[in-house]
Amino acid sequence: MFINSAIYPTFTYGDHPETWLPNSRRPERLEEAIAPHREQLWLQCAAAASYAGPWFLGRTFSALDLYIAVMCNWRPGRRWFLQHCPQLTAIAGRVEQLPLLNALFQAHFDHVAPLE
Question: Sorted alphabetically, which Gene3D superfamilies does this protein's record hold (predicted)?
Fold first, then answer.
């Protein structure tokens, strides 16, 4: 619930700040204010990841892993995740290499390697 109730909403406001600040000369300031908060939320999420297995919940694959795989490509960006949340980036990489999902991730994200 943390990703969809705390992190995901930051994109609702940040993607179209002019909706929320219609009379502002600089609506992009809303995204500038949200970005550090979003990063802190991701750090909290990463701290909750299990080290007991390849997935967020350890040995249990779940929808959390799918969410993480997609959202590691959104703001703050793949490079930020690599530097600050390497365990989430590793989970994303494993999801991207699942045979049933690899072609889908390749179609949407340039960095995803095809299965060998």
Answer: 1.20.1050.10
What does the block give as tokens for 111? 């960095």
Question: Residue 74 class from Cβ within 10 Å (0-12 exposed, 13-18 middle, 19+ buried)?
Answer: middle
Does the structural domain 2-108 have CATH classification 1.20.1050?
Answer: yes
Q: Which residues, 6 or more positions from 82, have their beta carbon under 8 angstroms from its beta carbon? A: 89
pTM of the complete model beyond 0.90: no
- Do 71 and 41 touch, CB atoms closer than 8 A? no
Whether pLDDT at 14 is above 80? no
* pLDDT number for residue 17: 80
Three-state SS for 5?
helix
User: Which residue has tokens 């949200």?
Assistant: 34
Q: Which two structure tokens, joined as six digits, stand for 64?
A: 């959390």
Token reading at 96 = 């991207």
